[in-house]
Amino acid sequence: VLRLETNRYVADLLATLPQQQAEVLRLRIAAGLSAEETAAVLSMSAGAVRVAQHRALSKLREQLRAGQVTS
Amino acid sequence: MTEHDFAAIAATDELLDALANGNRTTATNGESDAMTSLLAQWRHELDDHAASLAPFDGELSSAGVSPARSSQRWARAHRRTAAAAALAVALAASTGVAAAESGRSGPLAPLNRLLFGGTAQHHDATPSRVSALLQQAGDRIDVASEAGGISAAGRNDISALLNRAAGLLAADADAPAALADRLATLRTQLSALAQLPTSPSAPVTAGGTDNAGTGDHGGHGQGSDDSATNGADHHGGSTGSDDANSSGTSGDGSTDGGGIPGSTSGPTDGSSGGSGTTDGSSGGSGSTDGGSIGSGSGGGSDDGSRSVGSDGLVGADGDSSGQTG
């Protein structure tokens, strides 16, 4: 049985991010790629990936704190 | 960007590395606890679901794969699936194609559903891919059966095909049951095949393709397309003389189940490069482990130019009027 609640909640969270940042998080966490591998997939530099993921997580933290996304 | 920023970026990178590796990381500060826990749970549930897609060890051991190896195989397959899913995600992002349609069937479907949500639409991609894999495995088993056995490498190759088919079937609940039956039958047939010793002088399993060399060089045998995995095509070719006046020597098949030396008589009358005689035609290389049987097509060119390059590829200048070998 798939537990979709978490997935849907995370999907909602990711939907609030710019597309590239959301893709970076999907690739890094769900697909398990390294920053370098993610960079190769998205045609970015590894440094840009690290900055993007940092910004993305910062935004997610803010949203969770503010309770802007509800499951 | 300050030093503090760099440190924060590095910390985030470490956190994501840990999450990507499936570690249930504890956050270093209370503020990020909720987010870290959420992402860790997300990853954990993805892992749980992916694990449910792994083939049973029993299935693999029936194909001669040990449980330990099967775990490694699953780990590799899982990694490939994740990488493929990542590519599907990237495609969806870059092309704007909704929900990475390419990943909605086959092994990517469940992960695709998890990543993108929604219900995957079933279509015929998986059955056709499974059928192709089973057909390929069945052909190889047939050839090996006719040859009286199969090498260990050949058995592994066929097992890999069957396991790929099994993986596709496992991920597609709507796949026709007949495919699963066919898969089981092929596994049984494969396990029933006798094991052939692996040696350079392995028994010939298939006739090769003959391509008479002409002109400057004696021809090289043309390997079958299956030979690539076994390097057979490098051994099946004949070598002609460089001055194009002497006949090439016939190849003797590949080291691993190569083809039968060809007997083509390629009429040649090379005008500029001299004539490579017909004996220079090569024995084509069959593939290992019951590769496909090559059809003889020896040819002597009539312009004396090179006809066949190494590795069985026909050269540019060859005007090979082939004769069946």
Structure explained in plain terms:
The complex is a heterodimer of chains A (71) and B (325). By secondary structure, chain A is mainly alpha-helical. Helices cover 75% and strands 0% of the residues of chain A. Chain A is globular, with a radius of gyration of 13 Å. Chain B contains 8 helices and 4 strands; from the N terminus they run H-H-H-H-H-H-H-H-E-E-E-E. In chain B, the strands form 2 sheets. In chain B, strands 1-2 form a two-stranded parallel sheet. Chain B has a two-stranded antiparallel sheet with strand order 3-4. The longest helix of chain B is centred in the first third of the chain and has 29 residues, at 67-95. Chain B is elongated. Classes of the chains: A mainly alpha (71), B mainly alpha (325). The interface between A and B is large, with 37 and 41 residues.
What can be said about this structure in brief?
The complex is a heterodimer of chains A (71) and B (325). Chain A has 71 residues and is mainly alpha-helical. Chain A is built from four helices and no strands.
Features:
heterodimer, A: 71 residues, mainly alpha, globular, B: 325 residues, two-stranded parallel ribbon, two-stranded antiparallel ribbon, 8 helices, 4 strands, 4% strand, disordered C terminus
Number of H- or I-type helical stretches of chain B:
8
Looking across the biggest beta sheet of chain B, what order are the strands in? 1-2
Distance between the first and last residues' Cα of chain B: 73 Å
The biggest sheet of chain A, with number of strands, parallel, antiparallel or mixed sense and barrel status, is: none
Radius of gyration of chain B: 27 Å
Q: What oligomeric arrangement do these chains adopt?
A: heterodimer
Helix/strand class of chain B:
mainly alpha
Number of strand elements of chain A: 0
From N to C, what is the helix and strand string of chain B?
HHHHHHHHEEEE
**Averaged pLDDT of chain B:** 55
User: For the largest interface in this structure, which chains are involved and how many residues does each contribute?
Assistant: A-B, 37 and 41 residues
Describe the biggest sheet of chain B?
2 strands, parallel
Helix content bin of chain B = 40-55%
> Can you tell me the overall shape of chain A?
globular
Radius of gyration of chain A: 13 Å
Number of beta strands of chain B: 4
Give the termini distance of chain A in whole angstroms. Answer: 19 Å
In helices, the fraction of residues of chain A equals over 70%
Strand content range of chain A? under 5%
